[in-house]
Specification:
The chain is of the alpha+beta class. The protein has helices at residues 21-34, 74-85, 113-126; strands at 10-13, 44-52, 57-61, 91-100, 131-135, 141-144. Helix content is 25%, strand content 23%. The protein starts with 9 loop residues before the first strand and ends in a 16-residue tail after the last strand. The chain binds tetrahydrodeoxyuridine (THU).
Length: 160
């Protein structure tokens, strides 16, 4: 018997203005996307922006549905569109921002488990880490150097 310890390290920026320029620009794109979210049921809007190695930026936001489970998170909207349109491009960075209409979100809000799994697929596919930045509506921004860092013991193709 042995214990295995898995550690994750994150960088915390006090404000979006502290981010490296390309990451700040990407986060502003995510904020713009958040404002266009379709979230009439939860009133919780999420925006995601993805920077590709071909210089393109893809954005997405959450799309809700009267049949609740049929809706989709912002991160998966963005990453599946990326996979569909740019299957050969590498994802360099992803920025995520979330905000509620009912209370101001100051704490950095990480992607949900399902989105982490979805994003992990593309990190494995491209065989290179992607930087993930996430924040609330305002306040601190957390940076993870890879998706793997956010999802230890991920399920991937090696198990199939
Ligand atoms: N949501 C996202 O878009 N991304 C996440 O990572 C967590 C949750 C959305 C789904 C739903 O429309 C709303 O936020 C409330 O859960």
């Amino acid at each position: 018997m042995k214990e295995v310890k898995i550690e994750s390290t994150f960088t915390v920026f006090d404000h979006i203005d502290e981010l490296p320029k390309d990451a700040a620009t990407l986060m502003h794109e995510a904020i713009t996307a958040r404002k266009k979210a379709y979230a009439p049921y939860s009133k919780f809007s999420v925006g995601a922006a993805i920077l590709l190695d071909n210089g393109k930026t893809i954005t997405g936001n959450n799309q809700e549905n009267a049949s609740y489970p049929s809706g989709l998170c912002a991160e998966r909207t963005a990453i599946y569109y990326t996979g569909a349109q740019y299957p050969d491009a590498k994802i360099l960075k992803m920025a995520i921002t979330a905000g509620s209409k009912t209370n101001q979100t100051i704490a950095p809000i990480p992607p949900c488990g399902a989105c982490r799994q979805a994003i992990a697929e593309y990190e494995v596919k491209q065989d290179a880490p992607m930087e993930i930045y996430f924040m609330g509506e305002t306040g601190k921004v957390v940076k993870s150097n890879s998706l793997a860092n956010l999802l230890p013991l991920a399920f991937d193709k090696s198990f199939l």
